[in-house]
Amino acid sequence: MAMAGLYRRLLPSPPAIDFASSEGKQLFVEAIQNGTMEGFYRLISYFQTQSEPAYCGLASLSMVLNALAIDPGRKWKGPWRWFDESMLDCCEPLETVKAKGITFGKLVCLAHCAGAKVEAYRTNHSTIDDFRKHVIKCSTSDDCHMISSYHRGSFKQTGTGHFSPIGGYHAGRDMALILDVARFKYPPHWVPLTLLWEAMDNTDETTRQRRGFMLISRPHTEPGMLYTLSCRHESWTGIAKYLVDDVLLLLKSEDVKDIQKLLYVVFKSLPSDFGEFIKWIAEVRRQEDGGRSLSQEEKGRLAVKEEVLKQVQETGLFKHVAEFLSSSKSCCGNIPILSKEDDLPCVAASVCCQGAEILAGNCGSSRGYCCSETCVRCLKTNGDKPVTLVSGTVVDGPNEQGLDVLVPSRQMKLSCCGCDPSNSIGMYPASNDVLTVLLFSLPPKTWSGIKDNKLLLEINTLVSTQNLPVLLQEEVLHLRRQLFLLKRCQEDKVDEDLGEPLS
């Protein structure tokens, strides 16, 4: 019996010009000579084919993130951290993307959550002249890349909406190079920039919004190095609504006179599973991968995390939060994030189990892991300052594996303690600094309903990002972007409004 199948497509030319054709090669050489192929080299080094027919957005994004050398912060396979389509599993479930693809707004949200700096433009919020300027900017630099969302019909190609990175620009012919991630269908090809604009200036039938383009770059510092918001837990939609909408209404309805009462109003009604939404990031590795030494890369990342922690704990806002949590009026048992112990061995045991799931490729599965024991110690290497290391043995049925958790901490009165988890290692991330960062990350309008002018001035001064150290400022603004976009996802409006509140 015959079996039907498709092997590639003939690229309609014109309007496109095959990159590997004689004319395509000539365009490439001329563009190199004119300096508008600088972004090409990094992109081509990580060029990939989408692994599913509807994964063009995920493939384009993972390709760009790898080209920018953005660290995903978790392992892909074996010991390797690497962006793969399967790693882009927040904002929209992978099964949904596999069945329906991903919208422009959701891909923007996903890029933010992955740690990139993103500028997104729909065609009705931009012009072809601005688009050309952005194409030239990305083509003459290797630290910014563009992903275009367009309709294939404008190029006489089969199919509808599609995402692909733009790999270069030919100024003389005003043509852009599309690095088509559907390489099983069409090869990379040059297209007239005016026609590409026309292909983007098309309404997506799913969202009723215009298509467009996004510029993706590496932030000045690594965002989300210590804290992140998670949309993997099923309760995130309610928590995002509480933080953005409900806190504002609560402060309008209450007669708040001082900071401690304000904190009580904000924290008393936190959803019960709030601790699943904002997390601090601990790095996990197999014990056999590192032994008792740290690589330079690990030392560098840990140093950044520790500096962010230090900067949080030196803010005036942190002192108010710490005072609140230690006071009788906080009723600590009623604050959801405090319902889980901040005891380091308990936290580390949980992180070890999460790490085991990630390393086994079972992230988010119901498969059971148990951390049978943890051992907290100070690790000194080559005269460096001590670092906090928690070792755990994770049991999965008959199998066991040893994991290390590298814990960012502020070294206080240290004594290298061996394996007694009751001994004090230092101030590692806990409820007080997590809640402090959360308050920094709330939209500035949150405090506008406060009736007492003196209190309003005080809280605006405390939460202002203007005078924060650069590392902490980047961290806070990244979380604020995440919260904004997650709230838009919760409202199913992320495709309507791509703006982002930064101040």
TrEMBL record:
**Pfam families (UniProt xref):** Phytochelatin (PF05023), Phytochelatin_C (PF09328)
Q: Which Gene3D superfamilies match?
A: Phytochelatin synthase, N-terminal domain
* Limits of the Peptidase C83 domain: 1-221
* PROSITE patterns cross-referenced by the UniProt entry: PCS (PS51443)
| Top-level taxon of origin | Eukaryota
State a single Gene Ontology molecular function. metal ion binding
Top enzyme category: transferase
The reply to whether Transferase figures as a keyword in the UniProt entry is: yes
Keywords, in A-Z order: Acyltransferase, Cadmium, Metal-binding, Transferase
Q: What's a single GO BP term from this record? A: detoxification of copper ion
Return the InterPro entries for the record.
Papain-like_cys_pep_sf (IPR038765), PCS-like (IPR040409), PCS_N (IPR007719), PCS_N_sf (IPR038156), Phytochelatin_synthase_C (IPR015407)
SUPFAM superfamilies reported in the protein's UniProt record = Cysteine proteinases
The EC number of this protein is 2.3.2.15
- Protein purpose: Involved in the synthesis of phytochelatins (PC) and homophytochelatins (hPC), the heavy-metal-binding peptides of plants.
What name does this protein carry?
A: glutathione gamma-glutamylcysteinyltransferase
Per the UniProt entry, what species is this protein from, by scientific name? Triadica sebifera
